[in-house]
Design goal:
The complex is a heterodimer. A six-stranded parallel β-sheet of chain A has the order 2-1-3-4-6-5, sandwiched between helices. A six-stranded parallel β-sheet of chain A has the order 9-8-7-10-11-12, with helices on both faces. Chain A is of the alpha/beta class. Chain A folds into three domains: about 160 residues, Rossmann fold (3-Layer(aba) Sandwich); about 160 residues, 3-Layer(aba) Sandwich (Rossmann fold), CATH 3.40.50.1220; about 180 residues, Rossmann fold. Chain B is of the alpha+beta class. The chains are: A alpha/beta, B alpha+beta. Chains A and B meet through helix 7 of A and helix 1 and helix 2 of B.
Chain lengths: ~550, ~70
């Protein structure tokens, strides 16, 4: 056995069935080991797509996503995907080839100090210098990616280590260090939290991406036993039980009015597995001014980082919710149905920005799409206006049914993430909602769809603009539209067809229902090209650094 | 702010110094003795908020050095 075969054996031990990658010189021994091996390798057309596909795989399955790339440019092309996974707490293992050990430090061909480059964008990275350490290093990488707050780990392996003979009869190297049990939420803090919930008059729960750690059922139980009005960050869409009338929708910059207003009127915020991102809080010292805060998180670094917590619940969110539910059940269980009903009335219908009845509106398309999309479908989105319009309208059955680049906001994420989601969830319909800007960052992945016949369907909201930037230029930069006009977009329908992908052009509102229905019902990969109005804006909007008091629902 | 840390990975020393720079803190002292583990001592000057943010990030770096089950 050589080092590369040891890598593949380690992947098998971790239960890995699929890896996303792109070959190159330094990592060739690994590709040789993968040849005719049961671990499936999906050839993407750019390493960035490998990282995003692995992220989509992980986000929609809960399993560790795996990507690989060669040294130098291959590895550096993974960096955005690694940071995206870091920001959104996605368990990922990236394996990179490195130049031969004797070339390291010589500015060798395709040499990059990948461990130094990726230190800030991974939980940790490891350079394997001894073939005997391959198995243990990968075991540690997978354990670390999953442990506590999940995230990405990179393992860099020089070409000579991948080729080196491994004596499998030799004594194993020392096992990696384990830090023992994770944090257990304090009983006293739980009692304090429950006392505050019992005495609150207008509590609101905010659920974040931490709910993906298997906490959905307990979260639904917690809010249901209290009749608690609750809202979600974009990473937690799907946490609310379908049809839960106490759910106020997404909060934040483009969140629903009821959610933002209820949070601002709350006297108690129960923040669960969320990190008070600036897109959620706006100006932190004016956020939920009248509220005390209960903050639950697995990562102690989050306490007080943006918003001070009156009660910090440090631990796994499942354990925390179980403890809260049990402590509540030991005594009086308050009900907040009246306040939840009042909170719902703080909102109203989403403001419309539809400008002409004979031109296709992006929000109209998405209203119809989410009306018709199957309940069990997985939806990924790219980044920009369509991401916000979708988040306002989506009603996923579970957080693992919805994937978006939330913290990093990485354009080019949505389409390859859908490819990863399709591999992780065979038989489940998968849709990628993308804009014309982000789609052009990953167009070559149409070849990946075609090669493997991946049944991903792409909803392309083409408004011939980098729409979110255009919207900000309109509102905050005196309509100086610098570098956002994409009126010279290519013919996306022709491009899809050139790759052998079925394409459904949609230009008229009158055809929308029929074309969308045909697109959803189609078998195999497909593109729905929606030629939308160029200046439709996302409303409501809380301008950056402002509060719900400054909420905009239309152009001034 | 001074920190006396036991680190598993000597590279974390560089990471911490880089973070201090990023948060506009001045690293006024660094010593590190590497054996099985690394005993490191740092001193930083900077705004209170920046130092608090740096301390939290240092804690995160240390927590990622071992696998907590």
């Amino acid at each position: 056995m050589n080092g590369a075969q040891a890598v593949v054996a380690a992947l098998e031990r971790e239960g890995v069935d699929t890896i996303f990658g792109y070959p190159g010189g330094a990592i060739m021994p690994l590709y040789d080991a993968l040849y005719e091996h049961p671990v499936r390798h999906v050839l993407v057309r750019h390493e960035a797509a490998a990282a995003f596909a692995a992220s989509g795989y992980a986000r929609t399955s809960g399993r560790v996503g795996v990507c690989c790339a060669t040294s130098g440019p291959g590895a550096t092309n993974l960096v955005t995907g690694l940071l995206d996974a870091m920001m959104d707490s996605v368990p990922l293992v990236a394996i990179t080839g490195q130049v031969r050990s004797e070339l390291m430090g010589t500015d060798g061909f395709q040499e990059a100090d990948v461990c130094a480059i990726t230190q800030p964008v991974t939980k940790r990275n490891m350079l394997v210098t001894d073939v005997r350490a391959v198995a243990e290093t990968l075991a540690e990488a997978f354990a670390l990616a999953r442990a506590g707050r999940p995230g990405p780990v990179l393992v860099d392996i020089p070409n000579d280590v991948l080729k080196a003979h491994l004596d499998v009869t030799a004594a194993p190297i020392e096992p990696f260090a384990r830090g023992g049990a994770g944090p257990r939420v304090s009983d006293a803090a739980v009692r304090d939290a429950v006392a505050r919930i019992r005495s609150a008059r207008r509590p609101v729960a905010i659920i974040g991406g931490g709910v993906r750690a298997g906490a959905v059922d307990l979260y639904r139980l917690f809010v249901a036993m209290l009749g608690l009005p609750h809202t979600a960050t974009i990473n937690a869409l799907g946490a609310a039980a379908p049809g839960d009338a106490s759910f106020l929708g997404m909060l934040g910059m483009h969140g629903l009015k009821a959610a933002n207003k209820a949070v601002q009127r709350a006297d108690l915020i129960v923040a669960l597995g969320m990190r008070f991102d600036d897109r959620v809080t706006g100006k932190p010292d004016r956020f939920a001014r009248e509220a005390s805060v209960i903050h639950a998180d697995i990562d102690a670094t989050e306490f007080g980082k943006i918003v001070s917590a009156d009660v910090a619940l440090h631990g796994d969110l499942r354990d925390t919710l179980r403890a809260l539910v049990d402590e509540l059940a030991r005594g009086h269980v308050p009900r907040f149905d009246d306040w939840a009903a009042e909170a719902r009335l703080l909102g109203g219908a989403l403001p419309s920005d539809r400008v002409a009845c004979d031109v296709l509106s992006a929000t109209d398309v998405l209203d119809r799409f989410f009306r018709d999309v199957p309940d069990d479908a997985i939806v990924t989105t790219d980044v920009g206006q369509h991401q916000m319009w979708a988040a306002q309208r989506a009603h996923p059955a579970d957080p693992r049914k919805y994937a978006t680049s939330a913290g990093l906001g990485a354009m080019g994420f949505g389409f390859p993430a859908a490819v990863g989601a399709a591999y992780a969830n065979p038989g489940t319909p998968v849709f990628a909602i993308v804009g014309d800007g982000g789609f052009q960052m990953c167009l070559p992945e149409l070849a990946t769809l075609r090669r493997y016949d991946v049944p991903v369907k792409i909803v392309l909201i083409d408004n011939q603009n980098l729409g979110m930037v255009r919207q900000w230029q309109e509102l905050f930069f005196s309509e100086r539209y610098s570098a956002t006009n994409l009126a010279d977009n290519p013919d996306f329908v022709a491009i899809a067809r050139a790759y052998g992908i079925d394409a459904y052009p949609l230009t008229s509102p009158a055809d929308a229902d029929a074309v969308i229905a045909r697109f959803i019902a189609a078998r195999g990969p497909a593109l729905l090209h929606c030629a939308c109005h160029p200046t439709e804006n996302v409303w409501p909007m809380i301008p950056a650094g402002m509060t719900v008091d400054d909420l905009m629902e239309a152009r001034a | 702010m001074t920190c006396e840390l036991t680190l598993r990975d000597v590279r974390s020393v560089a990471r911490i110094v880089n973070l201090a720079h990023r948060f506009n803190c001045r690293t006024t002292h660094v010593t590190a003795n590497a054996g099985t583990t690394v005993s490191a001592r740092f001193a930083f000057d900077g705004a209170e908020l920046a130092l608090a943010r740096l301390r939290a990030q240092i804690d995160r770096i240390i927590s990622y050095e071992t696998v907590i089950e």
